[in-house]
Amino acid sequence: MPGVPSGKACEACRKQKKKCDEKQPTCGRCLRLKIPCVGSGQQRFKFQEEKQFTKQIRREFKNGTLSTPGTSKTSSSNGTPSPPGQLLFIQARPSSSTTRLAHAFTQAIQRSTDIRYNLGSTFGLFLEEVPRRLGTNDALDRAVDAITSAHTDFCTRKHGSVQALTKYSAALRTLRVYLNDPIHAQETNTLAAVMILLICQSIMGQTTKGQWWSGHAEGAMQILKARKEFGPQNEFEAKMYMSLRGSVLFEGLFNHRIQLSEKEWDSLIVNDYDKANPEGRLLQTLSRAPGIMRRARIFLRTGSDPTGVQDELWALYQACKLDVDKLKQSSVNKDLSLAQALPHGFHRTWLERVLTVHYDRIYGIGLVITLFFNCMVQALEIHSDAVQADAHHFTEEILVLAETSENLRPVGSGYLIICLITAWAATRDPELRGRVFEWLCEYQSDFSSRQVSQFQQELQWTAEHLCLGDPLGLRQELDYMDYLLD
């Protein structure tokens, strides 16, 4: 096409006349040099001839009369009458702030964005419907502005810039106002704002000292419990629930303020898409974990088991093992037929890539859920030798995922942090824990610049909590930093 340059290099590479890999949102050279990357992979247009829409005031003779500027009602752009023969230029309005915000957010979620940085393919496809909802809810607008700024920093390996933290704080203040309003608090867009801030906090690495959860999942539950109907109210919410349920389940293991009835858990978790699949069954099983943990702690303190928690826990653990074995088969024998049915091109390549990552991700989450129950079974000393062997095997599987998923860092492999935390808590082998800790520090560094000593303390607290107060033989005098120095 004449006048259209074929190159799609970013501005920095074009200026220096360097070869650009045209990756989005950040090319390899800008990422390596830690400089802003603008325009990578974007088509540029060079217009050969400028044509403007004009309106010309002419003198026209009609029936012997003369139309003059004095009798014409046409005015110039500033409101003054146009002199004879002047051209009026009709200019396009500048984009609104909402349009600019939607465009910036779309760059982070569109399918052409590299899967290593793509928020949509990692945190849920509900994000693709957010841009059209901007401008209708100030809490949602502020949340999107905050995550867009945080994502831009994240792509250039910046942790918590002043601008991103300021926008995040402003979004929290606005959300607080909306949650105090009984009408706004129940809106779909307010729930979307909570979800987006949950994602924003995770990529910014901002958590309260001594805890792994964000607190936003608890806020989402308060919104849902304030409604008459706990389940999704529309298709957009149904998509949000697919992403929200995992966050609520994992936070519910640590945050005792998340208290849901069995019916409410089912409304949140069960859906037509995966209720009969292994991943859906595992999430349903995990929803029973908070109650099991409370009853198991009572059993450890009193020594009596009137509710039969040991037998129930063992049955749930065996069910998890069966389902996680099926997920492993899906991870090994990846079914890409859905993508291969498409013609060769971008959409086929994109879908093959997404499906490949999806199978590994759900297998990793399945391992996490199984290891949660493994920790509790070990704490109750049920079939100890066999259960410890299971923990060793599942931990090795997570280490394989950590090694093979390095090319997805940072966002595409973020799920491995919870996988590695759980693996560290479940295994008793100090050498294996050292390997897990090394990978955990590596992956955690993508999201946070916390000191390793603080990170170790939080990790030990988490392990003790998952194991019902028994850290499974963790020796306080053993310094796992030694494994990092080998």
TrEMBL record:
SUPFAM superfamilies xref list: Zn2/Cys6 DNA-binding domain
Keywords: DNA-binding, Nucleus, Transcription, Transcription regulation
Gene3D superfamilies per record: Zn(2)-C6 fungal-type DNA-binding domain
Domain Zn(2)-C6 fungal-type: 9-38
Record-level Gene Ontology MF annotations: DNA binding; DNA-binding transcription factor activity, RNA polymerase II-specific; zinc ion binding
Pfam families: Zn_clus
InterPro entries: Osmoadaptation_assoc, Zn2-C6_fun-type_DNA-bd_sf, Zn2Cys6_DnaBD
SMART domains: GAL4
Region Disordered: start-end pairs: 59-86
Biased composition regions of type Low complexity, renumbered to the chain: 64-80
Protein name as it appears in the record: Zn(2)-C6 fungal-type domain-containing protein
Organism annotation: Penicillium brasilianum
